[in-house]
Amino acid sequence: MALALPENELLELYRRMVLLRTYDERSVVYHRQGRIGTYAIYWNHEAIQAGATFALTDEDWIFPSYRESAIGLVRGMPVETILQWWRGHPSGWWSPADWNVASISVPIASHVPHAAGLAWGKKLRGEGAVAMAFFGDGATSEGEFHEGVNLAAVMNAPAVFVCNNNQWAISTPLEAQTRAESLADKAVGYGIPGVRVDGLDVLAVYEAARDAVARARAGDGPTLIEAVHYRAAPHATADDPKAYIDMQRVEEERARECLGRFESVLKDAGVLSDEQIESTRTECEELMRAGIAAAEAEPPADPELVFTHAYVDPPENMRNG
Amino acid sequence: MALALPENELLELYRRMVLLRTYDERSVVYHRQGRIGTYAIYWNHEAIQAGATFALTDEDWIFPSYRESAIGLVRGMPVETILQWWRGHPSGWWSPADWNVASISVPIASHVPHAAGLAWGKKLRGEGAVAMAFFGDGATSEGEFHEGVNLAAVMNAPAVFVCNNNQWAISTPLEAQTRAESLADKAVGYGIPGVRVDGLDVLAVYEAARDAVARARAGDGPTLIEAVHYRAAPHATADDPKAYIDMQRVEEERARECLGRFESVLKDAGVLSDEQIESTRTECEELMRAGIAAAEAEPPADPELVFTHAYVDPPENMRNG
Amino acid sequence: MAELTLVEAVNDALHCELERDANVMVLGEDVGRAGGVFRATAGLRDRFGSDRCVDTPLAEAGILGSAIGLCMAGWRPVVEMQYDAFSYPSLNQLITHVGRYRWRSGGKMEFPLTIRMPYGGGVRAPELHDDSPETYYVHTPGIKVAIPSTPADAKGLLAAAIRDPDPVVILEPKLVYRTARGEVPEGEHVVPLGQARLAREGSDVTLIAYGAMVKVCEDAADALDVSCEIVDIRSLRPLDEASILASVAKTGRVVIVHEAPRTVGFGAEIAALIAEKAIFDLHGPVLRVTGFDVPYPYWTIEDAYMPSVERVTAAVQKLL
Amino acid sequence: MAELTLVEAVNDALHCELERDANVMVLGEDVGRAGGVFRATAGLRDRFGSDRCVDTPLAEAGILGSAIGLCMAGWRPVVEMQYDAFSYPSLNQLITHVGRYRWRSGGKMEFPLTIRMPYGGGVRAPELHDDSPETYYVHTPGIKVAIPSTPADAKGLLAAAIRDPDPVVILEPKLVYRTARGEVPEGEHVVPLGQARLAREGSDVTLIAYGAMVKVCEDAADALDVSCEIVDIRSLRPLDEASILASVAKTGRVVIVHEAPRTVGFGAEIAALIAEKAIFDLHGPVLRVTGFDVPYPYWTIEDAYMPSVERVTAAVQKLL
Ligand SMILES: Cc1ncc(C[n+]2csc(CCOP(=O)(O)OP(=O)(O)O)c2C)c(N)n1
Ligand SMILES: Cc1ncc(C[n+]2csc(CCOP(=O)(O)OP(=O)(O)O)c2C)c(N)n1
Ligand SMILES: [Mg+2]
Ligand SMILES: [Mg+2]
After folding, report:
1. ipTM topping 0.85
2. Which atom of ligand 2 is nearest to the CA of C30?
């Protein structure tokens, strides 16, 4: 079958997936080694993150949750920046304006209205930028998801809402989260298109995002994309899923993981060789080695930073304590 | 055509509509006379309020918004109790447990989760009660509407959510509230039935509610009912719609009002005579006269009530100020 | 100079600031077609268009959250919350994002948004149209809070808030929206945040208040035959500690007045400030006349809840 | 008596109270299958069934709002908020309904619900896992608030909250969830709300704290060669004013310690209480050692934000 992208782009997309995968796998190791703090594992979410963002230009904005903490990598954000976020070091707090990547959103779904507002605001200015927000299946139960998507729809804002449906919210399964057939169904209530794709098929995710971005740019408003897969790793390094997940099922899911799948697609299409696989992986591992080294080489943060940046123009009594 | 109810029930339903209508029309007069405070007019919403609640038994709970302030009348709540609420007199605060009618909810949509919880809690106890919540079209934009309906759906709670779609939220028209074709569409995202009915056809509303209540009692969970009509009166006594509504349209809508419509249906069916119309109206006007008299006869509230009821077991310093 | 009511002054400020800066926009429930339920935004939609005075869906968290995104897109949003108690659904956005986003950006981005709302009791309204939520706002890091008591300050503080690079919450005392009338400078008028107003000079007792309680203090002062100094705080954060401490040093007697419930109301912060920095200036206890730690009551008895001239004068007499 | 950690004591209390009263149920995010992200609810689902220990959808306002309905249906819900900062989406329900509904019912209905959550900093966690939200709760009328610092109190105060006829918020200091170990009475154990705990007797200075800051005060007292009395407030509302005033009368010197930002933090209320009722007992200013009015920092520098032994001892030395 003909693939959705030219060869060079397929290889770039592949590189991004490998980079994200490498970042994730190394981070779990770094955590075990005590070199980073608690970390939210996104193993097997790479097809969604790389595929959806591949439909964007650099003018477009990305609104990640903690699950997409490393998504800035697709924009060339340094590995060490993201590592520092997980190391609790201030140099991990990038400026959204530098990368058009919003800060990692920790409160579930609370960034959905931000994406709606950015998209709306850009449209009001006649600037073409699209906003793409990432969130999970659990996030769709939050009021702020509802208010944000509805507002974007009403404002006809150029936004793309990508739901990473990994079927778990920590220990809460999807059936305890919603009674809907699919999360894409929620789009109906907002009067916008809802699309359901295989979250492990990077090209399917890309195509859905490409069409959604095209609609947004054409002035046809937001789209909700549900990328369905299964969380095949713990929620985070602190989490032990054995208590609530059938590990057998997890094993099966791990076997279906998205990167290997894309590799075989590319190999079958004669686009990717074992040498390229090898070199891409080593290149990314190199980046990680350099990244963690750079992070660890950074001097400890100046405690004075407790006070800087809270205000442009701080109240005198801010330091009283 | 055959009507959905036996004659005596049709007449009782009619009486309730007249009672609600009379309460509303008299209240606007009382407000002009300075005998009650600001008042949220529900003129032409009576078919929804009387029709939907007619499907309930007294064990079932009603969760009204300010727009359904007088809905307790269908349960026999004294007129003066509701008048006192609008007069800012403490005797207007009934106990929900006495009537299975929750307190008037002022924050939009905030009572939707209460109805979900009550329905769920009754089900857990094996008690058959259904919870019916009323809210407006604007309320469907609130996060608490979303969280409440979703939770009720997940818990398979015996709840009926009645959206009074009068197409305005104060001055905000429906198209600025949602991009959805209909508000009933929102049910899809919760995996529950969504039903759209003519909010001026009391029997249509009743039948939709009857079916929803039957589903709830049968253990099939919640239903969202959208009752479509048009706000043919100001939002409240304080509001002047001329600034934002086409008064021509309002005139047309007033001509289609729901009570007269039900009267002619009943007359055509030979169920209702002019004498009965006359007597029902005078009976209700009598109730109102007695009600306002009783309210005005009540001694002014004891300022001590500022402190009573805040706690079962109040902190000592509660009265410090 | 024009004589305006407080709410007219708010409207005047909005006209001036939208005129002055094309990045300023107003959003909220019923602010456009209706011009606001108190007419605070009247005329803006006609004058500046429906893109710069926007009727939003009924969703306070969505409104405030989208305002953060609007800031990222280069706008200076002025958000109206229709009433005090209806701002609560937006508290999560306020606390977790509005107050923290600039810090998150390493100081590289600004979130110059303004949140304004009518607040306070005494207006004979149904439940939840009477709250004084200033504690929820001023306790939240990253936020500034101002409360005018006069028309001129209502205009000047709102202008300052809109121009301020940080998020500012303006609480407008709805009780005096139409009864507070006064001279208001025409055109641009800015009252810097962080400066208290000496509403009245005096020597025996210092009355500290803000919003609608300033008038209550003035009436109490008139009713008393002691010399009362009245400090109108105006800006809760940044707080003008110097003016407060100077007045306490002068009088040695303090009564703090606010409508909000007493426990950790803003009066507690003022009292703590004095207990820390002016303890040796005091001739007696620091007294608070406040709302009580109970739900705001039914309006027929709200006068028993609201700080009154009687309660303020009684407190002053205790100190003499 | 068994030696338990603070979080084990919470779990123990929940087992006892669900056993004791068939109307008590637990609901929240991940409280069932996983037994809570801190294991505070571990074992409840197996023991009492999935109807009495419920994994809810991810919706804090929906959770707290439904708990109000559960009360109307005769339940005594115990709501877990997974973390301090994740309780904010439920503040609208808390302020507009939880604190007001009994009053609305003319005192005829009870809303005996409990909201419990881990709170506070120092745990080396990502953003928004470190907040101290007590001001938002204790300022809200109709709500009671308690904060344990020992395992025995964690069990006893939670039991008291669950049995209390009014809504109670329990904030559990997660910093010492596993490091605070101590003897905990087996079976039913209730510590009445409204009673402070004299953590240590002393004569020169009174240190007033709660939660994880009690330990900081104890360490500071050990480091100092002055006699420190330590009052563990335990219950912020109802507040044990008598114990605080008695200690101040004895020492005349006060340092109040909490993690929350300073402005209208609970320390302000304590200072205001003292400035009103104990002004003539004081030998010096009332000092506060608190978090700062800034967003809670990145964890590598959080120690510069958290009140420390050094900051407490420095404050004490200022008073001598
Ligand atoms: C408002 C809020 N409530 C609770 C939490 C705690 N929490 C962190 S992750 C998580 C589950 C999120 O599940 P989902 O939305 O499916 O995203 P996923 O983690 O599966 O990617 C929860 C409850 C939070 N971060 N924010
Ligand atoms: C949370 C909240 N925000 C704002 C308001 C102010 N307000 C009162 S009624 C209303 C419009 C409600 O419209 P809708 O939901 O359609 O109900 P209707 O009044 O048309 O019956 C608004 C915004 C409120 N009461 N609560
Ligand atoms: Mg998930
Ligand atoms: Mg409406």
Report:
1. yes
2. 23
